[in-house]
Amino acid sequence: MYNRIYSLVHRSARPIPQKRQQLINKISTTVRRHLLALLALATLIVAMTFPTILYVFNTEVFWLPTGADGDVWMKFWDAWYGKSLLLGRADFYFSDLLFYPQGLSLVFHNFCIPHMLVFAGLQSIMPASNAYNLTYLVTVFAICSSAYLYLGYLFTDKWISLLGAVIVGLSPFVVGHSSHPDLSLIATIPLSLYFFHRGVLECRPRFVVASAVLTGITAYIGLYVFVCLCISIVLYIVYFSVERWRDRRFLVTAALFVLLSAAIYTNTLSISDTRYWSHYFARSFKPARDRLIC
Fold first, then answer.
1. Pairwise pLDDT comparison (81 vs 106), residue with the higher score
2. Is 245 exposed, middle or buried (0-12, 13-18, 19+ CB in 10 A)?
3. 43-60: b or e for each residue (b if 16 or more CB lie within 10 Å)?
4. Distance of CA 5 to the CA centre of its chain
5. pLDDT in tens, 123-146
6. Which pTM was predicted?
7. What are the pLDDT digits (tens) for 198-219?
8. CA-to-CA separations, 222 to 98, 124, 181, in angstroms, rounded
9. Are the C-beta atoms of residues 79 and 127 closer than 8 Å to each other?
10. Number of domains within the chain
11. Which structural domain, as residue segments, surrounds residue 182?
């Protein structure tokens, strides 16, 4: 009876396409090959950021890894404001919730969109402090993982890559700026360089497109990280141009990268929106009597 049921189920099951099966096998093989290194990386992150992991699960104590740094409260406000943006209740470039009724321009405010979204999302399932601590650990793991990926491509040795990932992701600059994700969230730098490097060497336009998208998206993290990534990409382009300046494919690849990343970045340029500049200056140059509090 069991054999009959098994044969019926087996016959009714749809066969997996060969390409999809090959992709599944490739992914499972890659995961098994790097699983031990990733577990070691996660263990090191927990150890180097201790006792943060304890306060991810302890909901009775309000504790943050930032110490006495007052800038962390701005990230709580950013997460709350991000929810208002998603619900259509706020403006990305201007808010009258601060300094009401005049309001305040947010043109130069350092929103870190990835941190805002993850932090705000986690607050729906856990208290705010626990959500912030988990967001911090996820951020560090993302930086270490991206560095591990690129170093693995360069050195083809997972343990050397693990050492480099620890040096990058657990550096004092990253671990010590838990309240400044717009400075420390550098995960897109090694990822973008990885895709650009492979895209040029292997003539794979899809990788160049991925690198350009990551470069443009980095502007949503912070201008500091974006400028650092742009400097790195320019150095790569200059290096490859020395040997490949006559190669038409390389010139097309570089042009594709510059145009696509610039197109994405221009959508994040709040200072290019004249409506908000005019609105900002119109409020800034009001007569002094309009701003007097009687």
1. 81
2. exposed
3. ebbbeebeebeebbeeee
4. 49
5. 999 999 999 999 999 999 999 999
6. 0.80
7. 998 988 889 999 999 999 889 8
8. 22, 25, 8
9. no
10. 1
11. 35-57+72-286
